[in-house]
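Deliverable D4.2, example record:
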Amino acid sequence: MKIASLAFAGAFALASFAAATVAQAADLLTIQLKSGPVVIELLPKLAPKHVAQIEALAEKGAYDNVAFHRVIDGFMAQTGDVKFGNMAKGYDARRAGTGGSDLPDLPAEFSKTPFVRGTVGMARSQDPNSANSQFFIMFDEAPSLNGQYTVVGKVVSGMENVDKIARGEGGNGEVSKPDRMIKVTVSKK
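Output generated by the structure prediction step:
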């Protein structure tokens, strides 16, 4: 009886340790830029639907070769328009930033997580429930975005590469010769 109890307790402890290890493993989104990689820790506890959609698009290669079409110095770099922003499949500068993906738009998953340097948020139209594939990386803090846009992750390495992304001209940040996400992959931390 004692041997069976010990075996059960040992198996239970091993299963609990394995479950805790899996629960701690975060998904990482790696964006290869011309200046080097940017690694983003995705935050599914904050925005499970948004993170799942980003991962699905990355896993099928939808983000590869997509431009940073809107980049405002001191604010953010926006990318992810898989419909009009692919530089290898007919980039449309006039329409970049107006498209999404073939997947459905997402309901807002706002949180109290602030928009600071390195925060990754989902772009959307005036409708809070219109985020789809586009996202942005913050160069600096922007308290006006707090609670208004969905936070999906944070840059954990390579922010110096984000800082090298070509900036846009004018107030809207439209980039005439944009940099692109060469390759985007998902992995476990």
